Amino acid sequence: MTPALRGAGWAALASLVVAVLARADSTWVDHYRAAMAARAAGDVTGFRDQLLRVRDELGDQPGVNYNLACAAARLGDRAEALRRLELYRASGLVRDLAADSDFVSLWSDPAFQSLAARIRANGDSIGTAVVDHRFGRADLLTEDLAYDPVTRRFFATSVHRGTVVAITADGRESEWRDADGRPGWSAFAACVDAPRRLLWTSVAATPTAEGYSAADSGRTGLVAWDLRTGRVARRIEWPRDGRDRLLGDLTVAGDGTVYVCDSPAGAVRKLAPGADAMTTVIADGGFRGPQTPAVAEDGRRLYVADYSHGIAVIDLASSRTSWVGFAPGLALQGIDGLYARGGELIAVQNGTRPARVMRFRLDASGTRIVSGSAIESGTRRLGEPTHGVIVGSNFYFLANTGWNRVGQDQRLATGPADPPMILRAHLGYGYPRASSRSSSRSYR
Q: What is the pTM of this model?
């Protein structure tokens, strides 16, 4: 086969792939895969058209805007390329446009050069937080943070050691270990139920934990600690069914209901007060990668960060799910930690470049984000942040957690390393909800 025919054959194959992937009932993932197949085949128009289908489902996400800018530049649409790049710049994310050959036709364009410089400047660090605590060990692999207002103690979970680190008001640490639990189980999420004097944690057997046994693979559950004694009060395991399960991020509602995300399954579970078993709120496959759930201030809705999609909102009475809208130019992907505070959401994003901690302002309905501003972004001390907790007018969050030292084998690398930290950011005392008519934006 000649090179020309080889190219034509690949283009035909790619067109077939696009047709198969992008059916009428396709998800945004199918359309994205079809877009990438069209791009690989040199079909720039197909690349753009499939991305527009992704945009229709996800909105003007930064990654979609960037790829649409690439397509526009290749198709000779300068104005559209610059418009999409301006939206990408507003997101606060960073790319090196000067090294992207998709924009070769614009490299000498002054407007493009100015945008490229401003997008590159998004990588400049922003640090408004202060260091509140440095952990004594570097091998914890910290994941979540909780706070008990009665004893004024913080609690951090350790994925590697499978323990809970209790931190007193004067900075003294002690490790809580489940004496009756199995070794090789990681501790993931943590949330204090102060009225009932419980600390809820999620646990799972993972290769990242010390003493992991493959025989426990797929086992996961919840552990409630008695805050008065530091001992385990309850232990509830999700039934083992041979599927990939991991109860990760959780929160506790005012009535004591525990909401927890099963990330590999794309599901949300709950444990009602006094119940002996969990039930399902959102069935398997409802999300692609659910992370932290956050109960709205009215107690009737649950916000859920979906790592690749954005933020969902679940009506707890009906389990009806919708997606939080957002002003163009905002980035809602890559959220690990999510917290509701009046008319805003605080988000820890470790799936963006740069990693950052953000404040997102909601409209009056609580279903649309109208603006965003950075609390901490791209600082060296931030490393890979994970989760935090709101205490009064401050947000405390974990930084330099150690996840950058976890390899493809899910093992934590050994050797010298700086320990994780807790950073504290002042949020202010007032947080009035924005007007539903507001369209103002606040970025960096």
A: 0.89
